[in-house]
C-alpha cells in the first residue's frame, strides 16, 4: 500500500509530478499566449476561445477522457496496469493528464501577463533586433513574474491532486497522506511536512505583497499600439501558429473526441468475432443515462452553492474590514496557506475537531454539510477574495470621482464591479463542484457527489454511461466559460 511510502520518495514524486506538470503546462500555455496576444496569428480569436472554453473542466473529467480513449477499456487501448507496474511510466501519465487540465489556466494567466508586458519599446525593438530577440528581451523578460506565478500556481494546484495519482498509484506526498488518514496509518512526520510547506508558501506570498508596495496589479491596460506590430513576420507567425493549433487539438479536442467516441462505442459478437463500432443510438442513450446521476448532481450543486455563498460573504467582510496594506498582505498570506494545505490535512483537521468536540459537533458532521462547506473554503475563498480585492481596487480608483460628480450614474459604474464578482462566484462554484480531495473523508453518510462517483468509477474502466456523464459536464463547462468570456470587459482576445 502507498501509506508506507518513505517520506523522501513521496516528496520526490510530488516534485516530479508537480514540477513536470507546471513546466509542461507553462510552456504550452506560453506558446498559445504568444500566438494570441503578441503575434496575433491567423484565427487567434478562435484559438483563444477554444483553449479558454475548457478552463472550468474538472480534473476527474480530464482523467476520464484520457482513460476513455487510451485506458484498458478505451477505443484505442492503453492498459493502465502497465503504468502501475512501471513507476516512470505512471509519473509521465500523471504529468500528461494534469498538464492537459492545467493548460487553459496557464494560458489565462500568461495572456494577462503578456498584455501587461507589452509597451512601445517592444515595437521600437523590432527596428534593431530580430523578432526572436524582441520576444525574449522585451516581452518575456517583462513577463517573467507572470511566468513564475503561473508555474507556481500550477505546481501548487497539482500538488493537492489525488485523483490521477490514485488512479496510477503514484505515491506523492498528498496521495500517501490521504491513504494514511483513510486507513488509520498516519505517520507523524507527514502532516508536519505538509503544514511546513504550506506555511512557507503563505509567508512568501504575504511578504511579496507587503514589500512590493502598491503594485500595478489591476491598473495595466492592453497596449493597442501593438496590434499588427508583428504582421510582417509571416514565417515566425505561421510556425508558432502551427504549434498553438497543435496544442489545441491534442490537449483540448482529443479528450472531447475520446469521450464522444467512447459514449457511442459498441462491442458485439458476430460469427464468433468481436465487432467494435460507433453508434449514434448508443451515444444518445449514454447522454440520456445522466439521469441516473441526479442524486449526485443534487448534492454537488447544493454543496457548491453553499460554499460559494459563504466564500462571497467572507470575502466581502475581509475586503471591507482589512483594507490597509499590511492587513491585506496578511490576509493573502493566510489564504495562500489554506490554498496550499493538502486536502488530507484539511480532512484530518476536521476529523480531530469532530472527535474531540461535543455531541452537537458530531451531529453537524453526520447530519449536515457544514463540515464539507467549511472545508471547501480552503479552496474557494482564496480565489473569490483575490478577484474581489482586485475588482474593488479597480472600481474605486476608476469610478470614485465620476460617482462623486454625478451620483445618477452610480448603478452604471457598479456594473463594472459586478462583472468580476459574477466571474468570482461562477469560478468558486466550479471549483467546489470539481473538488474532491478537500472533503472526501468527511462526507456525511449517504452523501455522494459527482466528483466522488466519478473518482470511484474511474478505477473500474470508463463505460458508455460514464463517458456520457463526462460529455455533459464538458458541455456545461464550455457554455459557462463562454458566458464568462462574454462578461469580460476585454473581449478582444
List the SSEs and their pairings:
Blueprint: H1 7-38, H2 44-52, H3 59-70, H4 80-85, H5 87-115, H6 120-128, H7 131-140, H8 144-159, H9 164-167, H10 173-182, H11 189-212, H12 234-263, E1 265-270, E2 273-278, H13 280-288, H14 294-321, H15 325-340, H16 343-355, H17 359-367, H18 370-405, H19 410-434, H20 450-458, H21 464-487
Antiparallel strand pairs: 1-2
In short:
The protein is mainly alpha-helical. It has helices spanning 7-38, 44-52, 59-70, 80-85, 87-115, 120-128, 131-140, 144-159, 164-167, 173-182, 189-212, 234-263, 280-288, 294-321, 325-340, 343-355, 359-367, 370-405, 410-434, 450-458, 464-487; strands at residues 265-270, 273-278. A two-stranded antiparallel sheet has the order 1-2.
Q: Would you write up a description of this structure?
A:
The chain has 493 residues and is mostly helical. The chain contains 21 helices and 2 strands. The chain has helices spanning 7-38, 44-52, 59-70, 80-85, 87-115, 120-128, 131-140, 144-159, 164-167, 173-182, 189-212, 234-263, 280-288, 294-321, 325-340, 343-355, 359-367, 370-405, 410-434, 450-458, 464-487, and strands at residues 265-270, 273-278. It has a two-stranded antiparallel sheet with strand order 1-2. The N and C termini lie far apart (48 Å).
Amino acid at each position: 500500500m502507498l501509506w508506507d511510502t518513505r517520506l523522501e520518495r513521496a516528496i520526490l514524486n510530488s516534485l516530479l509530478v508537480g514540477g513536470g506538470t507546471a513546466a509542461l503546462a507553462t510552456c504550452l500555455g506560453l506558446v498559445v499566449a504568444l500566438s494570441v496576444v503578441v503575434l496575433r496569428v491567423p484565427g487567434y480569436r478562435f484559438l483563444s476561445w477554444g483553449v479558454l472554453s475548457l478552463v472550468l473542466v474538472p480534473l476527474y473529467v480530464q482523467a476520464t477522457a484520457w482513460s476513455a480513449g487510451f485506458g484498458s477499456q478505451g477505443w484505442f487501448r492503453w492498459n493502465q496496469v502497465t503504468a502501475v507496474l512501471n513507476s516512470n511510466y505512471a509519473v509521465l501519465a500523471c504529468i500528461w493528464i494534469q498538464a492537459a487540465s492545467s493548460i487553459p489556466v496557464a494560458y489565462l494567466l500568461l495572456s494577462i501577463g503578456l498584455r501587461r508586458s507589452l509597451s512601445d519599446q517592444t515595437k521600437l525593438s523590432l527596428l534593431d533586433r530580430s523578432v526572436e530577440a524582441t520576444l525574449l528581451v522585451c516581452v518575456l523578460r517583462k513577463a517573467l513574474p507572470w511566468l513564475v506565478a503561473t508555474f507556481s500556481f500550477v505546481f501548487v494546484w497539482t500538488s493537492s491532486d489525488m485523483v490521477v495519482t490514485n488512479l496510477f498509484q503514484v505515491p506523492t506526498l498528498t496521495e500517501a497522506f490521504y491513504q494514511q488518514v483513510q486507513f488509520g496509518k498516519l505517520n507523524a512526520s507527514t502532516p508536519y511536512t505538509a503544514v511546513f510547506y504550506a506555511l512557507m508558501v503563505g509567508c512568501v506570498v504575504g511578504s511579496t505583497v507587503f514589500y512590493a508596495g502598491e503594485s500595478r496589479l489591476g491598473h495595466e491596460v492592453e497596449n493597442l499600439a501593438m496590434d499588427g506590430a508583428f504582421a510582417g513576420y509571416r514565417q515566425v507567425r505561421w510556425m508558432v501558429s502551427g504549434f498553438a493549433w497543435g496544442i489545441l487539438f491534442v490537449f483540448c479536442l482529443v479528450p472531447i473526441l475520446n469521450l464522444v467516441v467512447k459514449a457511442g462505442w459498441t462491442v458485439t459478437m458476430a460469427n464468433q468475432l468481436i465487432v467494435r463500432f460507433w453508434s449514434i443510438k448508443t451515444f444518445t442513450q449514454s447522454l440520456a443515462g445522466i439521469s441516473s446521476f441526479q442524486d449526485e448532481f443534487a448534492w454537488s450543486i447544493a454543496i457548491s452553492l453553499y460554499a460559494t455563498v459563504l466564500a462571497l460573504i467572507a470575502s466581502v467582510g475581509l475586503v471591507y474590514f482589512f483594507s490597509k496594506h499590511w492587513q491585506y498582505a496578511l490576509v493573502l498570506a493566510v489564504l495562500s496557506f489554506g490554498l496550499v494545505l493538502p486536502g488530507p490535512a484539511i480532512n484530518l483537521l476536521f476529523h480531530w475537531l469532530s472527535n474531540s468536540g461535543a455531541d452537537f459537533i458530531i451531529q453537524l458532521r453526520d447530519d449536515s454539510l457544514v463540515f464539507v462547506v467549511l472545508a471547501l473554503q480552503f479552496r474557494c475563498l482564496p480565489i473569490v477574495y483575490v478577484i474581489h480585492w482586485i475588482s474593488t481596487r479597480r472600481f474605486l480608483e476608476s469610478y470614485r470621482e465620476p460617482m462623486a460628480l454625478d451620483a445618477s450614474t452610480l448603478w452604471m459604474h457598479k456594473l463594472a464591479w459586478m462583472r468580476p464578482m459574477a466571474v468570482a462566484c461562477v469560478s468558486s462554484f466550479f471549483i467546489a463542484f470539481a473538488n474532491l480531495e478537500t472533503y472526501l473523508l468527511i462526507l456525511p453518510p449517504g452523501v455522494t457527489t459527482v466528483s466522488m462517483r466519478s473518482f470511484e468509477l474511474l478505477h473500474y474502466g470508463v463505460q458508455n454511461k460514464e463517458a456520457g456523464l463526462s460529455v455533459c459536464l464538458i458541455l456545461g463547462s464550455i457554455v459557462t466559460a463562454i458566458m464568462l468570456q462574454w462578461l469580460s470587459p476585454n473581449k478582444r482576445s
